[in-house]
Amino acid sequence: MYVAMNRFQVRPEAATAFEQMWLKRETRLPEVPGFLSFHMLRGPQREDHILFSSYTLWASRDAFEAWTKSPQFASAHKAAASKTGSDQKSEQQPMTIGSSQFEGFEVLQVIDGK
Amino acid sequence: MYVAMNRFQVRPEAATAFEQMWLKRETRLPEVPGFLSFHMLRGPQREDHILFSSYTLWASRDAFEAWTKSPQFASAHKAAASKTGSDQKSEQQPMTIGSSQFEGFEVLQVIDGK
Where do the domains of chain B lie, and which CATH numbers do they carry? Predict the structure, then answer.
């Protein structure tokens, strides 16, 4: 299995709007081959931002990479970049400080609760 | 739900030993109230380290905090700190650069695959 994580440094005054953008979006992820689960996470508040992170579990790295090459991925991420301001073209104050930070992980071990 | 993440900067030459330490350890996590799942993750290689991360999903922040106050938690983490060298008392070269970095997250949204 493979995890795709994106970390977002969100300006504190934009945190509610950022959350709502994620919670209200339409997603076709459950239909994508190899998609297993998605978590949207709100993390610690730092000096100038709140750390948010998305955590997407895939059956394999190949499944994730196939999704990133699909037209659906391109259109979904173009829309998100415009809303967060990470494409630096928005006239509004961007929600995030800089672009999101991507980290890909190989899953070495899974332990499930009883 | 709540996620407890620990991020480890592991020296490249210690990566295999670090993985084996995790994979071979005995854990009683599945018996801990509120524990849902655990992922051990191997992430990107950077200039001087490989990023590893643990990702533990809990029913609530309270369940996680109760676990951190248990004697089982203290003994498990004391042993791990000695092995990784993060307690700075090991005579061997430590496996990690500095201590692990903890990040706690509130789970805002869960989407599961079909």
Answer: 2-106 (3.30.70.100)
